[in-house]
Design brief:
heterotrimer; A alpha/beta (about 575); B alpha+beta (about 120); C alpha/beta (about 575); B: about 120 residues; alpha+beta; 5-stranded mixed beta sheet; globular; C: about 575 residues; alpha/beta; Glutaredoxin; Rossmann fold; Ubiquitin-like (UB roll); 5 domains; 21 helices; about 15% strand
Chain lengths: ~575, ~120, ~575
């Protein structure tokens, strides 16, 4: 332990703790624009400076470890003045068009300018006049607003191991861009949106499609239906002053109906369906030896995109089951349309997702048009929906709880936990266990696959047969798992895993790139807890027990992995180049 | 080439630290070359060869007097050892004719005298 | 000279470089002729004898005695007494006082840098042999500690301490890097050492490897130094062939090898952490310290980064002894420092002087004084990270602390003499522009602050700034100095702060009176043609690139102020001083 003083208050911290973290412990807030709890310090902004008594230098508290006996001053006249000047300098190189900005009211720079009472711009404005890059249709790069904190680059390179984003040029011309100064769409970008989730300003934001949704809602010829993903319900409350992780499913349904949606579905129903298909697939491959092992989950579109570019040799291991919202999408334009005698051409299916990559997924291959139309028309992120609710003047906090529409809105506890890392695995195991043994699990919780450890490895005993599994979240953690698999396959040794779950975003969908800003591990855990709590509170907690899923098979689909299932609920993967020419 | 030992290193040292006579060195660092030292070096080599003189012409690094580049150091038996500066092709030939052959120092080009 | 040929030589040198009516050399020749001695004595006009400001002097060879030639009487006396009678005129002897001391440059200009045998002939690799066989790594560091050697790259950090950090950090792999990313405008000390004596640096690196426990080293040389790269590569190859690099050096069980990595032209890559990033193949941006490279550097291994000049000192110190070295220099700075002396000085070039020498000695006794005998205004040291030292402080002994006290720094060795024609706003602008161009862009204070500071300097030099702007400029200077991540940003305001400190009046003149006394800031100047002096030759009209001076045969020419772009071509062209800057 290190003993030191900050502002004359004694502190005791673990060796290696930074001054910034140590100050937090004694409730001293040192402002910073570049340090994010998920990332190591880039030391770019120069605002978190502090003084160490006995030296005449100012040090960056984000990256300076507290040493034994240090005597730190975090606030005095000179520090305040220096910080203010640095903020003013940053503002002199920033558009300051807060009113038109995607981060208005939610921007770390705006907040800091407010805190410091900036009332005038003393220095001449110099803008960089850089073009936006919205080429992916999922996230927009607005380099003009970038303060070069470096979080996005670190997220893309270190956390996600994708290396799509990079700094280009130098000095005042330094800017973020896809490496090689190409369009992001031509780069290895997997659209996970983690860059946007970590950006302190409006320099990377979700590709806004609220306008399109409003147009559809106002169009009398359209029949707008909507679905919400599991992770949305535990995060949307952050935009309306609810406590972290509050589960607001019922209010969400109400709000969506008030917005004008004719039917409200829940992606969680699709999750149950995905599990039935995917668990069946696992049993086929694992028990009946039909198909390659390990089976790898494929609900995450960023992960699918990553695999198609970075690990095309692994395509055969992927589950061909579509992601839950795609299943709900195709069913809304087939089963639901037929049942309710609605022309599927008129149906506008909107998905509300915690995710930016889902915007890409809806047109990623021809299987996404299995209904004969684009199965999902528009994807909104949680952030976009929150804005729409506010625009519509809906008093979200005081809404009554409502229910979703049958049957595409009826789900089990297994479907809900899809939104957290390990959740898909846990849900699949509940059902797979039943398929293999025809018995009910005594204990439904698989605690070994829960939590935020980067790679979770464990073994499940299914009546004497050991199933080895791995759960990875954050693409940076995937390499460890896949290299082990590749090695075993190349050396023809025993497989390290039979079943692998991957989610591209740290924490899984609760930490998705389209979720409300300010995510930290603490918040990821809170949101996940919201989901696990709902699971625990639900009567039916295994997907195969969802009576409406059973009904769907009986009435429409036939059986899992059957012909109709294959046509509507499964997809294919193709190797793709890392860079488009 | 055999790897050196402490002894063979010392042997090379002995062989190379003996004072030598009758040589010309041209400062061939970037500063010298920029001022035309390469032409001077080539000229000196040609002139020595043409006249069949027993004088070795070599190169060295920058002696510091960059304002007077190209610098040429001349050590000829019977003439003080001097460093000439601001040497061009013409004065290089003069060094050979006057200094090396006639053992007379050149006017206006001496920038340092290293004794005898 | 051989004994047989004891012919006397009289070297005549004008140490002021002035135009004189009488040519003393001719006078000596005619006096000698009168005495019929002209066959026996050669009179040579020389350019320089290392003595300045003493009028015309004569040095008699072979005795090597120098006299000051005050008048013709002195010439007669020299001929009659010294030449004819071989006497020495004791009272008139002028002692040459060599101010330079060459330790780092000991072999530069002496050996052929492409011949390892030449280097070995000058005691090369003797220190290495001594260290490997007779010392422990701890001894080497102890010797360096006693020597007092401090980093010559600018920071002045004690080399022994740096080495000791790396030595005492446990690791399987350690590195030593030679920082040859020299980039200060006008500085070329490192280039000259690498081009003139590469082995001295290599030997320093091998010894460093031995001392810290590294078996691998890198030269980080900027790609703009092709000749240095070529010579270092040749030197590495030769050393490897001799077994001075590679496995089992000199038959010992110590192994060490070297490679070259090229810098791609970014000034900031001279900063330790950016240099490491560059070698690792990353964007050359500084990263926060700690961790210091000597604890966690190249690929997270302990890494010592030393400047070329520092490394060139190592072998000599270990061979001649730490005490010898610490006997040279000032109280806090030992040994010598190499400077690239440039600017308005007569003898611009590379000099090596003992620490503690005064700036006056450097400028006048080595540099030969100010160009065209103008008045000195200041000396700039430390390049873009340094500041100006006004003429009032010329007697300051040069070392790290003294220069810092004056608001400048020792830096890597750039030293630029400024005279009365230099405008301090212009000087500050020049250096700041360099830093703005070279900012890596990573940290906001340097990236944006530099740009904004430059804006204010431009406004001042155009006469378009207010006193309020000057306050804002100083405000940014302080923020950038305090809040920048690396040395480049932290020191970028120095040229501004130091010029404001000493020459605030000059800034005020630009701002309040819109006047540049040094007549440097073009926007504050007007070029006019004096009616009285103009001879209507038309040269200015032909020189003007924008036809602002129409032909006006037989009448005085007039500059059209609307059209004039203030390039100064007419001013330079006019032979009759008729073009006036005002």
């Amino acid at each position: 332990m290190i003993k030191a003083k900050i502002n004359n208050i004694d502190v005791q911290v673990k060796k290696g703790s930074t001054i910034l973290d140590a100050a937090k412990l004694i409730n001293v807030h040192i402002p910073t624009l570049c340090k994010h709890p998920d990332l190591h310090a880039t030391a770019g902004c120069g605002i978190c400076i502090v003084k160490i008594k006995g030296t005449n230098k100012m040090m960056r508290s984000c990256c300076t470890p507290l040493d034994e006996g240090m005597d730190i001053i975090t606030h005095d006249q000179e520090l305040q003045q220096t910080r203010k000047t640095v903020i003013e300098l940053i503002l002199s190189n920033h558009p300051n068009d807060c009113l038109q900005c995607g981060r208005n009211n939610n921007c770390e720079l705006q907040k800091l300018a407010g805190d410091f009472g900036i009332r005038e711009f003393p220095f001449k404005q110099h803008l960089r006049n850089l073009p936006e890059d919205g080429s992916t249709g999922t996230i927009s790069l607005v380099p003009e607003k970038c303060i070069l904190c470096g979080r996005c680059v670190q997220v893309c390179q270190d956390l996600q191991d994708v290396w799509a984003l990079s700094f280009l040029e130098r000095g005042l011309n330094t800017r973020i861009s896809a490496a090689g100064d190409i369009n992001l769409a031509d780069s290895p970008c997997i659209k996970c949106g983690q860059c946007s989730a970590h950006c302190p300003t409006g320099a990377i934001v979700e590709f806004d499609q609220t306008h399109q949704v409003w147009q559809s809602l106002y169009n009398p010829d359209k029949y707008c239906v909507v679905q919400i993903a599991p992770a949305v319900r535990v995060a949307i409350g952050e935009a309306f002053g609810f406590s972290e992780g509050a589960n607001l499913t019922g209010k969400l349904y109400s709000a969506l109906r008030m917005l004008g949606f004719k039917a409200v579905f829940d992606t969680t129903f699709g999750a149950d369906l995905t599990i039935v298909e995917e668990a069946s697939e696992f049993v086929e491959r694992f028990v009946h030896k039909k198909g390659a092992l390990p089976l790898i989950t494929s609900c995450c579109p960023s992960w699918v995109d990553y695999m198609e570019r970075f690990y095309p040799d692994m395509i055969e291991y992927f589950s061909t089951a579509k992601s839950p919202h795609e299943m709900v999408g195709v069913l809304s334009k087939t089963y639901y349309a037929q049942k309710n005698k609605i022309d599927p051409a008129k149906i506008q299916m909107i998905s509300v997702m915690p995710c930016t990559a889902k915007k890409y997924e809806v047109s990623r291959s021809e299987q996404m048009f299995a209904s004969g139309y684009q199965d999902i028309d528009i994807v909104l992120t949680t952030r976009e929906l929150a804005r729409m609710i506010k625009q519509a003047g809906i008093d979200f906090a005081n809404l009554p709880d409502e229910s979703a529409d049958h049957i595409l809105g009826d789900y089990t506890g297994a479907g809900v936990i899809f939104g957290a890392t390990g959740g898909v695995m846990e849900a699949a195991l509940r059902t797979a266990y039943h398929y293999v043994t025809n018995k009910k699990l005594a204990k439904l919780e698989f605690n070994n696959v829960r939590g935020l450890e980067g790679v979770k490895e464990t073994e499940i005993d299914i009546e004497g047969t050991i199933v080895k599994i791995a759960v990875a979240h954050g693409i940076g953690n995937v390499e460890y798992v896949l290299k082990k698999v590749e090695k075993a396959i190349a050396e023809k040794t025993e497989l390290p895993y039979h079943f692998i779950e991957v989610m591209a975003c740290p924490g899984g969908c609760v930490g998705g790139g389209g979720q409300p800003y300010g995510v930290t591990d603490k918040l990821r855990i809170k949101r996940a807890q919201g989901l696990y709590q709902e699971d625990a509170d639900t009567k039916i907690r295994s997907s195969h027990e969802n009576p409406f899923v059973c009904k769907l098979y009986a009435e429409f689909l036939g059986k899992p992995l059957g012909e109709k299932s294959h046509k509507l609920l499964h997809t294919r993967y193709t190797p793709k180049p890392m860079y488009k020419k | 080439m055999n790897k050196l030992t402490k002894d063979s290193l010392n042997k090379i040292k002995q062989e190379n630290s003996k004072p030598r006579k009758n040589w010309i060195k041209v400062g061939m660092s970037t500063c010298g070359i920029a001022a035309g030292a390469d032409v001077v070096l080539e000229t000196l080599k040609q002139e020595v060869k043409k006249r069949n003189l027993d004088v070795s012409v070599g190169q060295c690094g920058c002696a510091g007097k960059c304002y007077a580049e190209p610098l040429v150091e001349v050590c000829i038996d019977g003439v003080p050892q001097v460093i000439y500066g601001n040497i061009d092709k013409k004065s290089a030939i003069e060094i050979i004719e006057r200094h090396v052959t006639n053992k007379q120092l050149l006017n206006d080009h001496i920038y340092n005298v290293k004794g005898r | 000279m051989s004994g047989k040929n004891d012919k006397k030589i009289i070297l005549v040198c004008d140490t002021d470089g002035k135009q004189r009516e009488a040519d003393y050399a001719d006078t000596i020749i005619s006096v000698l002729a009168e005495e019929k001695l002209d066959d026996q004595v050669q009179v040579v006009r020389v350019a320089e004898l290392g003595i300045y400001g003493q009028g015309v002097i004569a040095r008699i060879l072979p005795e090597n005695i120098t006299y000051k030639l005050n008048d013709e009487a002195m010439i007669n006396q020299i001929v009659s007494e010294v030449i004819k009678k071989n006497k020495t005129l004791r009272d008139a002897v002028l002692e040459a006082d060599p101010k330079q001391l060459k330790i780092v440059l000991r072999n530069c200009g002496i050996i052929d840098p492409e011949k390892i045998d030449d280097y070995i002939g000058q005691d090369g690799y003797q220190a290495l042999a001594k260290v490997i066989f007779d010392s422990s790594p701890q001894d080497v560091i102890e010797q360096l500690k006693i020597s007092g050697l401090r980093g010559r790259g600018g920071g002045g950090f004690p080399t022994a301490t740096k080495w000791n950090f790396a030595r005492s950090t446990e690791a399987d792999q350690k590195y030593i890097i030679c920082n040859a990313d020299e980039g200060d405008p006008g500085a070329y000390m490192d280039r000259s050492v690498l081009e003139g004596d590469p082995h001295s640096v290599i030997e320093g690196m091998i010894i460093g490897g031995f001392a810290i426990g590294a078996d691998k080293g890198y030269f980080y040389i900027r790609a703009e130094y092709p000749l240095a790269i070529e010579r270092v590569q040749k030197a590495i190859d030769q050393a490897r062939e001799y077994g001075l690099l590679g496995e089992n050096i000199l038959g010992s069980n110590f192994s060490f090898d070297l490679d070259i990595r090229l810098g791609a032209g970014a000034f900031v890559c001279g900063e330790e952490t950016a240099l490491i990033a560059s070698i690792e193949g990353k964007r050359g941006c500084p990263t926060p310290r700690p961790p210091y490279p000597s604890i966690s550097g190249l690929w997270k291994n302990p890494t010592v980064i030393n400047n070329v000049e520092t490394l060139a000192n190592i072998a000599v110190i270990l061979l001649k002894g730490a005490k010898w070295f610490s006997g040279i220099g000032s109280a806090t700075a030992k040994g010598t420092k190499v400077f690239a002396l440039t600017g308005k000085v007569k003898n611009s070039g590379l000099i090596e002087v003992p620490m503690g020498i005064t700036l006056r000695e450097i400028v006048y006794e080595i540099g030969g004084g100010v160009f065209e005998d103008k008045k000195i205004k200041a000396v700039q040291t430390g390049g873009p990270s340094g500041g100006v030292i006004p003429k009032e402080f010329l007697d300051t002994p040069v070392d790290y602390e003294n220069l810092q006290k004056l608001g400048s720094i020792m830096g890597s060795g750039g030293m630029i003499v400024l005279d009365e024609d230099d405008c301090m706003v212009d000087i500050a602008k020049f250096y700041l522009r360099f830093c703005v161009d070279e900012s890596c862009g990573k940290c906001a204070p340097c990236r944006i602050g530099g740009f904004q500071m430059l804006n204010y300097l431009k406004a001042i030099s155009r006469g378009k700034a207010t006193q309020d702007d000057l306050v804002k400029l100083e405000n940014i200077c302080n923020a950038v100095k305090k809040a920048s991540l690396c040395g480049l940003g932290q020191t970028a305001p120095n040229p501004i702060l130091s010029t404001i400190k000493y020459y605030r009046e000059e800034y005020n003149q630009h701002i309040n009176d819109r006047r540049c006394a040094a007549k440097k800031c073009a926007d504050l100047l007007r070029f006019v043609i004096s009616k009285e002096k103009c001879v209507s030759c038309g040269m200015c009209s032909r020189a003007c690139p924008v036809n602002a001076i129409p032909k006006n045969e037989n009448k005085e020419y007039i500059i059209n102020q609307e059209q004039c772009i203030k390039c100064g071509k007419c001013f330079d062209t006019c032979k009759f001083d008729a073009v006036i800057r005002e």
